[in-house]
Design a protein that fits this description.
- Helix content is about 40%, strand content about 25%.
- The chain is built from 11 helices and 10 strands.
- Helix 5 packs across helix 10 (about 270-285).
- It is elongated, with a radius of gyration of 23 Å.
- The model has no long low-confidence stretch (mean pLDDT about 90).
């Protein structure tokens, strides 16, 4: 049996679309469809129901998926054992992370690590969404909550704090903000409620009764840029806002604390390249702990 065909089947099963699988595998759509058909001919059974809206597994496909994933896990373990014999880090490691941490911390730290390991390719996806390790969307994932299901390796990275920020010019030219009730006179820059992918991001709900005047943006970077431009007040990550001297923290008692968790899959965790990147993330984040958790004097963080 041709493993490349099995690998293509796995990607189609995980993505639910031939086109999406082709993009992830960097293959032509027709090639993926042809190889999938060839695998079905080899096995003399239909594995995938194809439709214009996507693909679903037949009962035979469900059975074959379980067997293919077991074979994939064994190949990954074998590759890990063979790689142990070499000190050189080779191959690709994909890291999925929230866009705040990804853009304002991991991009620099993982870029530096890649620069010192020429055989290693690190792919960072700093996106506001949930990544699936089971579907091999990433080798390492940073989440905002500890997963409650699945056989995963979970490590708490750090707590981090957020607060209300405004640009210095905005503060100077707008009505004063000395209490949360004053927010009713201002534009609140925050997430789009409908696409929040984790309850941990729902901190703006604390101000729902105080103001309905909002600019909602799906990315941390977009929120920061809107606040920097002087358009309103935003709840921003302290470690990201610290990069911009024009930003000022207001209402220090409005302090929010959340957590980052580092997640990896047992099948790939002990691969030298994955283990090395995993440890590098832990080390650099913990060394910068004082940047992530900024405690306001006499103030407890909100959940």
């Amino acid at each position: 049996m041709d493993w490349d065909r099995v690998r293509i089947f796995l990607e189609v099963a995980r993505t639910g679309q031939i086109l999406r699988a082709a993009r992830r595998l960097r293959l032509n759509h027709a090639t993926v469809a042809r190889q999938l058909s060839a695998l079905e001919e080899d096995l003399k059974t239909k594995l995938v129901n194809r439709a214009t809206t996507g693909s679903s597994l037949t009962p035979a496909g469900v059975l074959f998926l379980a067997a293919a994933e077991r074979a994939e896990s064994e190949l990954l373990r074998a590759g890990s054992q063979l790689a142990e014999a070499s000190d050189r880090l080779d191959g690709t490691v994909r890291v999925g992370a929230p866009d705040g941490l990804g853009n304002y911390f991991l991009a620099a730290q993982l870029g530096a690590f890649a620069a010192t390991n020429p055989g290693l390719k690190i792919q960072l996806e700093p996106l506001p969404r949930i990544f699936s390790l089971a579907k091999r969307e990433a080798d390492i994932v940073v989440t905002l909550e500890r997963p409650e299901e699945g056989k995963l390796i979970c490590t708490k990275l750090t707590d981090y704090s957020l607060g209300l920020y405004a640009a210095e010019d905005y503060i100077r030219n707008s009505s004063p903000v000395t209490s949360p009730t004053d927010l009713s006179q201002h534009l609140l820059v925050t997430y789009i409620d409908d696409i929040i992918y984790s309850p941990a991001l729902n901190y703006a709900s604390n101000f729902d009764t105080l103001t309905s005047h909002r600019f909602e943006c799906g990315s941390v970077m977009g929120q920061i840029e809107a606040v920097r431009a002087g358009h309103g007040i935003g709840i921003l990550h302290d470690y990201a806002a610290a990069r911009y001297p024009e930003l000022r923290r207001i209402l220090p008692r409005e302090n929010f604390v959340r957590s980052y968790w580092l997640i990896s899959h047992p099948d790939t965790h002990d691969t030298p390249r994955v283990r090395a990147v995993h440890q590098h993330i832990i080390t650099t984040v913990r060394q910068a702990k004082s940047q992530f958790l900024v405690k306001q004097p006499g103030v407890e963080g909100r959940s």
